[in-house]
Specification:
Order of helices and strands: HEHEHEEEEEEEEEHH
Distance between the termini: 37 Å
CATH class of the largest domain: Mainly Beta
CATH superfamily of the largest domain: Lyase, Ornithine Decarboxylase, Chain A, domain 1
CATH architecture of the largest domain: Beta Barrel
Cofactor: pyridoxal 5'-phosphate
Number of strands: 11
Largest sheet: 5 strands, antiparallel
Oligomer: single chain
Strand content: 15-25%
Organism: Nocardioides albus
Number of helices: 5
CATH topology of the largest domain: Lyase, Ornithine Decarboxylase, Chain A, domain 1
Keywords: Isomerase, Pyridoxal phosphate
Protein name: Alanine racemase
InterPro entries: Ala_racemase (IPR000821), Ala_racemase/Decarboxylase_C (IPR009006), Ala_racemase_C (IPR011079), Ala_racemase_N (IPR001608), PLP-binding_barrel (IPR029066)
C-alpha cells in the first residue's frame, strides 16, 4: 500500500485499470510469541485496511500470518494464512514447542553406489578426520554438500537404513559422503535416508540444523537444488 496511495488505487480500480484482490504484510517476530512488534504490525495493518476501505477498495484477501502466527495468533489469521515451515512439519517457534502435532514431511534419500572393506585405522575422506576403529565396511553415497548436505563434524548425524543408524565417516565431500556401515547388511543399490521424520534412524530437519549450526530454513531450502529431483507424494 505504500508505493501507491490507497486513494489512487481506488481511482485506478474504479476506472477498470487494476483490480485489488488482496492486501498483505509480513511479520518480523512471529516466531517469538508475545513479542510487541507483532502487535505493532497488527495495528499498522489495520490502519492500512481502514485507509483502503475509505478509498473504496474491498479486497477479497487480507493476509498477515506466517506459520508461527497461524499457530499462535488467531487474531492475525484474517482471510488466509501463509504457512511455510509448518507445511514441512517443522516447528516455527524459536524457544518453545509448537501448539500443534507437527510431523516432518520431507525425506532426503539416496542410493548406495559402492561398498568396500577397510581394515582398522584407515583414514576416511579429506583430512583423515575419521579413522576406522575396527575392521569394517564403508559405503559410498553419491550425495554431498553441493546437494545441500551440511558439512558437519564426523559422527554427528546418523543416516537411516532399515531401522539402523549408520555413521557418516569423515568430511562430507562435494558430491559424496562415506558411511561406516560395520556389519550392517548394506549393498550397492540400497536406499539410505539422510533426512526425514526419524522413523528409520535418520536425523530430522531440526536435528540436522542443530548439529550443523544452521536454521531449519537453510536445511530445507538448501537440500536438493538442481541435482536432486523432488518427488511429491499425496
Amino acid at each position: 500500500m505504500s508505493l501507491v496511495p490507497p486513494l489512487s488505487k481506488g481511482r485506478l480500480e474504479r476506472d477498470g485499470l487494476i483490480e485489488v484482490v488482496g492486501i498483505w504484510s509480513h511479520l518480523a517476530c512471529a516466531d517469538e510469541p508475545g513479542h510487541p512488534v507483532s502487535d505493532a504490525q497488527r495495528e499498522a495493518f489495520e490502519t492500512a485496511l481502514a485507509a483502503a476501505a475509505l478509498a473504496g477498495l474491498r479486497p477479497r484477501w487480507r493476509h498477515l500470518a506466517n506459520s508461527a502466527a497461524a499457530l499462535t495468533r488467531p487474531d492475525l489469521r484474517y482471510d488466509l494464512v501463509r504457512c511455510g515451515l509448518a507445511t514441512y512439519g517443522v516447528n516455527p517457534l524459536a524457544h518453545q514447542a509448537a501448539p500443534a502435532d507437527l510431523r516432518p514431511a520431507m525425506r532426503v534419500v539416496a542410493t548406495v553406489a559402492h561398498v568396500k572393506s577397510a581394515p582398522e585405522g584407515v583414514g576416511v575422506s579429506y583430512g583423515h578426520t575419521y579413522r576406522t576403529k575396527r575392521p569394517t565396511r564403508l559405503a559410498i553415497v553419491p550425495l554431498g554438500y553441493a546437494d545441500g548436505v551440511p558439512m558437519i563434524p564426523p559422527g554427528c548425524a546418523p543416516v537411516g537404513f532399515d531401522g539402523a543408524s549408520l555413521t557418516i565417516a569423515g568430511r562430507v565431500c562435494m558430491d559424496q559422503l562415506v558411511l561406516d556401515v560395520g556389519d550392517t547388511d548394506v549393498s550397492p543399490g540400497d536406499e539410505v535416508v539422510l533426512l526425514g521424520p526419524g522413523d528409520h534412524g535418520e536425523h530430522t530437519v531440526e536435528e540436522w540444523a542443530a548439529v550443523s549450526g544452521r536454521s531449519p530454513y537453510e536445511i530445507l531450502t538448501g537440500t536438493g537444488r538442481r541435482r536432486v529431483p523432488p518427488v511429491w507424494l499425496h
